[in-house]
Specification:
Layout: H1 10-24, E1 28-29, E2 35-37, H2 38-43, E3 55-57, E4 63-66, H3 71-78, E5 85-98, E6 103-116, H4 120-135, E7 141-147, H5 148-157, H6 162-173, H7 177-186, H8 191-198, E8 204-206, H9 207-215, H10 221-237, E9 245-247, E10 260-266, E11 274-278, H11 280-286, E12 291-298, E13 322-327, H12 330-341, E14 357-360, E15 365-370, H13 375-380, E16 386-390, H14 391-397, E17 402-406, E18 412-419, E19 430-434, H15 437-447, E20 451-455, H16 462-465, E21 471-476, H17 480-484, E22 487-496, E23 498-502, H18 504-509, H19 511-526
Parallel strand pairs: 1-5, 7-9, 13-15, 13-16, 19-20, 19-21
Antiparallel strand pairs: 2-4, 3-4, 5-6, 6-12, 7-10, 8-9, 10-11, 11-12, 14-15, 16-23, 17-23, 18-21, 18-22
Length: 527
């Protein structure tokens, strides 16, 4: 059989093209060993994507780890001389913990690093190669850029205490405006300061227009310096930077990145396929005074491009459809009524059919009816573009999605409850019964309380009555069931309601349709 590009998978094709691209750019291939001494990852744990690594004792008695990261190894060995910029590219597999499979998985990465003398020209070179790497995939792509200094400069200008910064940045990255405003007030900001912080969420779009808008809001020297660096980047890229997007709310991994950061998306792939930025903090631990910038492409994600379209998406021709996951039951009925009131009704009543998919070709929407606990999963994995899900389920799942709106529907609260005469004995671990294991664990970890969790799926109130647990963590709506069983609310710690969520890639490629629907939903809620 004759070998042609069509005989290779998208990831294999990308490997050949990227290798040629990087070698033509003067990058030297870095060959990594599969293992590293565990002490390296132990010392630089805060620079790892995940602190969990697989360790083993080698034949020489040393504790080693299966490599979870390539950049750390390159930074350790690069040792650039003053004034020198070393350029490497790599094509490696790393091993990381998977939240979804609850085990370790192998991830195929291809990327490049510039280490040493990193100036504006090098920054532009790396961004140009990131754009070229995406273009080599021959499908629609988006590359978004931000600058850590713009966000941290604003936090400094607003005098945000260090203890609150990580949470505020997390909400920014989730585009969660409703909770961001509340959290900013809780952090001690006044209403004007909270509004200013939330204003970062509007600073995204075409690079030039967004940069101009950001300059009008810059409130500190650090922010102005960040914008000057972005302006220099735009000038250096010129025509090569056409189509580049700017999103100044993108500021995750603040302990790792310190300057320009960027993320790439591919149409048809639900997660980012490229991530990178400037990481001087790590580089200077190995070579004082040196800087570094680079990116990695996640080639495993590209295999989705070879899969045929699902049957439901093979209909509709060239029209851009929004695929909406609705929870079955009372909340789903309320959510559908809201969307129908906003002009997005389906052509048939899903309650009168056994179909799991109903649609409206004129409005360009499809509704998928799924179990409430599965809504966030469908959206995170891109089977649905958007969905409506309870905050309890969203938080418990830890789904990597944008949370764009609190609909206010289905209001209740997450509580700790127990017998009326309960007194916590802190000399032993607290026994907690719940079906919300992650929420309960996180709540008590924040308080520093040692707990033993009993996972239950129903009739949670029985656990303290029968002595299975000391307390429960569960949703409380009216409190009637608790009262009838001689239990009481000990602590309320999370308001619950239905949230409108979006897949991160869908938000990039279907932005106009998605924001139009979101605007109409807000108008319907206001009536």
């Amino acid at each position: 059989m004759e070998l042609t590009p069509q005989n290779f998978t998208p990831a294999e094709q990308a490997t050949f093209r990227l290798r040629a691209l990087y070698e033509q750019g003067g990058y030297r291939k870095y060959r990594a060993s599969r293992f590293e001494e565990y002490a390296l990852y132990q010392e630089y744990q805060r620079f790892l994507p995940d602190p969990q690594v697989i360790t083993f004792t080698d034949l020489d008695g040393k504790l080693r780890a299966i490599k979870p990261d390539v950049t750390l190894s390159i930074a350790k060995t690069a040792q650039p001389a003053p004034g020198e910029c070393k350029r490497f590219y790599y094509n490696e597999e790393v091993c990381r913990a998977s939240r979804e499979s609850h085990t370790f998985q192998t991830i195929h990465q291809m990327g490049l690093e510039c280490m040493g003398e990193v100036d504006e020209a090098v920054q532009a070179e790396v961004l140009h190669l990131a754009l070229a790497s995406l273009a080599a995939l021959d499908v629609p792509t988006v590359l978004e850029v931000s600058h850590m200094g713009f966000v941290t400069g604003l936090l400094d200008a607003l005098n945000v205490p260090d203890a609150y910064r990580a949470r505020l940045v997390e909400l920014l990255c989730d585009k969660n405006e409703h909770e961001l405003h509340k959290a900013a007030l809780h952090a001690g900001l006044d209403a004007a300061g909270a509004d200013t912080l939330c204003g970062l969420l509007t600073l995204h779009g075409p690079f030039g227009a967004t940069l101009t808008a950001a300059k009008a809001t810059a409130a500190s020297p650090a922010q102005k310096a960040a914008l000057a660096e972005l302006q220099a980047l735009q000038n250096a890229l010129g025509e090569a930077g056409r189509g580049l997007q700017l999103d100044l709310s993108m500021a995750d991994e603040a302990e790792y990145y310190n300057g320009i950061v960027f993320t790439g998306y591919v149409a048809g792939v639900p997660r980012a396929v490229l991530k990178g930025g400037q990481y001087d903090y790590l580089m200077q631990r190995f070579t004082p005074g040196a800087k570094a910038i680079g990116f990695a492409m996640y080639l495993d994600e590209l295999e989705r491009l070879a899969a045929p379209l699902p049957p439901v998406q093979q209909q509709g021709g060239e029209k851009v459809w929004l695929n909406i996951a609705l929870p079955k039951g009372r909340l789903g009925d309320k959510a559908y009524a809201l969307l129908a009131g906003a002009g997005y009704s389906a052509n048939e009543d899903y309650n009168d059919t056994r179909k799991l998919v109903v649609e409206n070709p004129e409005a360009g929407v499809r509704y998928f009816l799924v179990k409430p606990s599965d809504v966030a999963i469908y959206v995170e994995h891109g089977a649905a573009d958007i969905g409506i899900v309870g905050k309890d389920i969203l938080t418990e799942s830890g789904a990597d999605v944008y949370e764009l709106l609190d609909t206010g529907m289905g209001k209740c609260r997450m509580c700790v409850a127990g017998p009326k005469n309960f007194v916590d004995d802190e000399s032993r671990a607290l026994r907690v019964a719940t079906k919300f294991v992650n929420i309960a664990r996180d709540h008590y970890e924040r308080r520093g309380r040692d707990i033993d969790i009993v996972k239950l799926n129903g009739s949670i109130e029985l656990a303290p009555i029968l002595g299975l647990s000391d307390v429960i963590v569960d949703i409380v709506e009216t409190g009637t069931t608790l009262k009838e069983n001689d239990l009481t609310v000990i602590e309320e710690f999370m308001p619950i309601s239905a949230r409108f969520i979006a897949n991160k890639a869908s938000y990039k490629f279907k932005y106009a349709q998605l924001t139009e629907l979101l605007t109409k939903m807000k108008e319907a809620l206001a009536q």
